[in-house]
Structures are given as structure tokens and as C-alpha cells.
Write a structure and sequence with these properties.
Aldehyde Dehydrogenase, Chain A, domain 1, disordered N terminus, alpha/beta, 6-stranded mixed β-sheet, binds nicotinamide-adenine-dinucleotide
């Protein structure tokens, strides 16, 4: 179809997408709108047969897609970006319903979809050539085959596109499994994609954790691109080892933010708060520990508290809200556990002690814990909610060691007027992405991945393309 024609798409009926066709199921589940607690639309749960059919269709479609010139693949991806943009409002609305995000943040995620695809389409697939008197060695990269993309609930759309765009660009086919908490935008995205791509190239099967596990053991899936928790990531790697699948694991983090004594306190403190509480703290690279130089500790914390108290929390429809609810009841209970633990241990709630036990829906007012001990849960674990600890520091090497004293290594931030000095500290932080004078804002222009238990490998950017490819080296000897 022509992308200039607005396609009609029903945003209230949802299907799995197998071999270019919508597919229902006898088994149904549904998401819950976290702002209202009300059940959302029915969604079919894919059976093992649905998955097997999808993988078979992906395998059948692979040779022709692989052999489609990369320029043509890019053209189709760009058409898809255009087509998606025509439905931006409907997708924003759907994302608000399934995730509870305030509308302007949902719109940012939606806007990121075409940006993500467009950037990937500007990339060339890497290649190298070596020549000496005896031979020419061509290092080329070829696609893997059928990939499986397993998605979490915190950014259901952009994290789907973050797998689909590089997989398709590099000539793979892909089967996406959205989170059971947020199945809607992912399934609709793939349904829309059928208007552009040949059957079997991009497919979606919705379902629970068990379906995810089936992807990781399927013999005809060549690679799993997984984004989710560290605990599940370990299971994915273990299961994938049985068939030696390639895996990319994008997992949880416990990002440190180091505040140097020369910062502009009034300007930086609200930014640091946003780094912690963006998407209600439900971000893998949210700031989760804040280390403030002791000479400005009190004043900086006070500015953080002042800003935090102005943050409005509420439903997506209210344009003023900066934060929405926690996305699901399971996570809500988990986050409440961090509040309860901090309270039971007698830690100081710098921004007040929100009454989470009686709040309606899954709403949590953000708060800051003032200087809890190093071995506290709130320092050592990832809450994935709007609660963040601060601690003072005095010695630079010591605070770097404290920031690095974790089994995770996803992101980190350093804030300071002297950019060179801040960048020097950034290079000593053991994390995949370190931000100087900004809170964590991952971008498609660079590979994104974690050190230590925050992941294996990485995707996005030019280097990230290699995660979807095999090296294929051709040695040509001169006769
Ligand atoms: P999760 O690990 O519970 O679930 C993620 C996905 O894995 C879901 O689709 C789920 O159905 C599926 N799954 C569950 N068990 C499985 C199994 N045994 N085999 C295969 N798939 C299985 O994670 P979540 O609660 O949805 O997401 C929150 C976590 O994700 C946080 O820890 C967060 O830090 C992390 N995260 C990481 C990144 C990143 O890029 N590094 C991005 C977003 C979220």
C-alpha cells in the first residue's frame, strides 16, 4: 500500500500476528489500566502452536528478506516509520491506557519510534577489507535468521522498535513477544507492519512468561534479544545455551549519580530529581543512588526536596502531571516494600513520607531517603519506583568506589561545571552508558548495554547492528 494513504486500524481489537495474518486464540487475557485499575481489552494468548507457526513462517521468509538489497529493506523501514506516524495519536492514546504514562511522555515514546527507525536507516552495515601480496580478506556480516524479541512493560513500544529496526535492517526476521502487562501497543505495531513487510518478516505472539521461555528453547530461533530483569535474564541465558543461541541481555541497573561541589545547585537539583523519578522511576537507567559532595549536601538536597514537592502525580489525561502510576499491581507491591523497609529501619524521608498504603490506583508520591546506610535495601537493590536515596561524599576515589560497588553496571551520571573533570570521573564508572551533565537519556545513536549483571552485549547504534549478525570472512588468495 502507499504510505501516503492513511490506513484504517482498529485500536480496540487485538491479535497475534502470524505469517502476515491476524490470529486470535481460545485463551484470552487482558491488561489493566494502572490509572483506573480497570480491565482493558481482551488479548489472545498465543499457544505453542502459534509460536511454532510463527517461527516456521519467519524461517520461510528469511532467505528472500536476507537477499533483499539493504537499500530496499531501508526503504520499507522508512515507509513503516511514515505509516506509524500517521497513527501517532491512536498509539499515544493506547500507550497511555496500557502504561498510565502522562500523555506528553507517552507522546515522546511514540515520537521516538520514527526517530529510532530513521537513525538505523542512516547506518551502513559494517564491513572491512584487508589486503597483502598473498590475499584479500573480506570481513562481512550476515544476518542470523529468525530472532526472538522479548519485551518488558516499562517502554513497551520503543523497546519493541529497538529490536525490530536493527533486526530487519540487517536482514533477519523477528518474532516479538510483548509483556503480558502491556501487550497492546506492541501487537498493534506489528499488525500495522503487515501493510509494509512481506509475511513472516515481523510477527508478534502475545503471552505470559511461559511463552517467553518457549522462545528461548525453540531450535529454529537463532537469537534472543531480551530486555527485562536480571533474574529473568539469567534464565534466558541458561535456556538459550541449550541451542547455543546468540543472546543480547538488556537488564536492570542501580545507577549512581555523582554531584561535584561546583554545580549550579538550583539548576542541577531538579534535573537530578527527574533522572530518578522519570516514568515514576520505572526506567532501567533511572538514577537510583545520588552521591552529593558534602560541602553542598544540605543545600542540594533541599533543592531536590523543593522540586519533588511540586511534582504532580496522576492520570495520563491531566496534562499537568509529571508522573503517572506504577504500571502494575505486582510492581506496586514491590515498590511499597521499599517504602515499608525504609520506614521500619527509621531512615529519614527527606521529601515527606507518602502514605502509599491508602492511595487509590497504583499511584505513589515520589520521595527521597536522606543518607541511609550502605547496606540498606534502598541503596543495594533496584526499587524500580519513585523512591531514591542520597548520601554525602568527600573523597573522589572513595565515591567512585562506592558508585562501582554493585553487581550492576547499566548507567551512571556525573554532574559538574568542569566538564573535563566530570568526564574523567565518568570514564572510571563501571557502567555501559555514563552521562555527563544530563540524566540518563539513551539514544539510538550509540550501543546500549550493561556491564556486570546488567547484561550481555548491547544493541542500537552502528556497533549494535553486529548483535544481529554473524561475522562471515571470505579469504581470497591470489593465484
Ligand atoms: P521481566 O524480566 O519480569 O519480564 C520481561 C519479559 O520477559 C516479559 O515479556 C516476560 O513475559 C518475559 N519472561 C518472563 N520469564 C521469562 C522466561 N523464563 N523466559 C523468557 N521470557 C520470560 O521484567 P519486567 O518486570 O517486565 O521489566 C522490568 C525490568 O526490566 C527491570 O529490572 C528493568 O531494569 C529491566 N529493564 C532493562 C532495560 C535495559 O535496556 N537494560 C530496559 C527496560 C527494563
Amino acid at each position: 500500500m502507499s504510505p501516503s494513504k492513511v490506513s484504517t486500524l482498529d485500536f480496540e481489537t487485538f491479535y497475534n500476528v502470524v505469517d502476515g495474518k491476524q490470529r486470535g486464540s481460545k485463551e484470552i487475557h487482558h491488561g489493566v489500566n494502572p490509572a483506573t485499575g480497570k480491565e482493558l481489552w481482551d488479548v489472545p494468548i498465543a499457544s505453542e502452536k502459534d509460536l511454532n507457526d510463527a517461527v516456521a513462517a519467519g524461517k520461510k521468509a528469511f532467505p528472500a528478506w536476507r537477499d533483499t538489497p539493504v537499500q530496499k529493506r531501508k526503504e520499507l523501514l522508512m515507509k513503516f516509520a511514515d505509516l506509524f506516524t500517521q497513527h501517532a495519536d491512536e498509539f499515544t492514546n493506547l500507550l497511555c491506557h496500557e502504561s498510565g504514562k502522562p500523555k506528553k511522555f507517552a507522546a515522546t515514546e511514540i515520537g521516538g519510534v520514527s526517530g529510532f527507525i530513521q537513525y538505523h536507516c542512516s547506518l551502513e552495515i559494517p564491513e572491512e577489507k584487508f589486503e597483502d601480496d598473498e590475499k584479500t580478506v573480506y570481513t562481512e556480516y550476515t544476518p542470523l535468521g529468525v530472532c526472538g524479541g522479548i519485551i518488558p512493560w516499562n517502554f513497551p513500544l520503543i523497546l519493541s522498535v529497538g529490536k525490530i529496526a536493527p533486526a530487519l535492517l540487517t536482514g533477519n526476521t523477528i518474532v516479538v513477544k510483548p509483556s503480558p502487562f502491556t501487550p497492546y501497543t506492541g501487537l498493534k505495531l506489528v499488525e500495522l507492519a503487515q501493510e509494509i513487510f512481506p509475511p513472516g518478516v515481523v510477527q508478534a505472539v502475545g503471552g505470559n512468561n511461559e511463552l517467553g521461555a518457549l522462545l528461548t528453547t525453540h531450535p529454529d530461533i537463532a537469537k534472543i534479544s531480551f530486555t527485562g530483569s536480571i533474574a529473568t535474564g539469567k534464565k534466558v541465558m541458561e535456556a538459550s545455551a541449550k541451542t547455543l543461541k546468540r543472546v543480547t541481555l538488556e537488564l536492570g541497573g542501580n545507577d549512581a549519580s555523582i554531584i561535584l561541589p561546583d554545580v549550579d545547585i538550583k539548576k542541577v537539583a531538579p534535573e537530578v530529581v527527574m533522572g530518578a523519578f522519570q516514568n515514576s522511576g520505572q526506567v532501567c537507567v533511572a538514577t537510583k543512588r545520588i552521591y552529593i559532595h558534602e560541602s553542598i549536601y544540605k543545600e542540594f538536597l533541599q533543592e531536590m526536596v523543593n522540586f519533588t514537592k511540586t511534582i504532580k502525580v496522576g492520570s495520563p489525561e491531566d496534562g499537568d502531571n509529571l508522573l503517572g502510576p506504577i504500571q502494575n499491581s505486582m510492581q506496586y507491591e514491590k515498590v511499597k516494600g521499599f517504602f515499608a523497609d525504609s520506614k521500619a529501619k527509621g531512615y529519614k524521608f527527606a521529601a515527606g513520607e507518602p502514605d502509599v498504603s491508602t492511595s487509590k490506583g497504583f499511584f505513589v508520591q515520589p520521595t527521597i531517603i536522606d543518607n541511609p546506610p550502605n547496606d540498606s535495601r534502598i541503596i543495594a537493590e533496584e526499587p524500580f519506583g519513585p523512591i531514591v536515596p542520597t548520601q554525602p561524599w568527600s573523597d573522589e576515589e572513595e565515591v567512585i568506589a562506592r558508585a562501582n560497588n554493585t553487581n550492576t553496571g547499566l548507567g551512571a551520571c556525573v554532574w559538574g561545571k568542569d566538564v573535563e573533570h566530570a568526564s574523567k570521573i565518568a570514564r572510571k564508572l563501571e557502567a555501559g552508558s555514563v552521562f555527563v551533565n544530563s540524566w540518563e537519556k539513551p539514544t539510538p545513536q550509540a550501543i546500549f548495554g550493561g556491564h556486570k549483571e546488567s547484561g550481555i552485549g548491547g544493541e542500537w547504534g552502528k556497533t549494535g547492528l553486529l548483535a544481529f549478525m554473524n561475522a562471515h570472512v571470505i579469504h581470497v588468495y591470489k593465484s
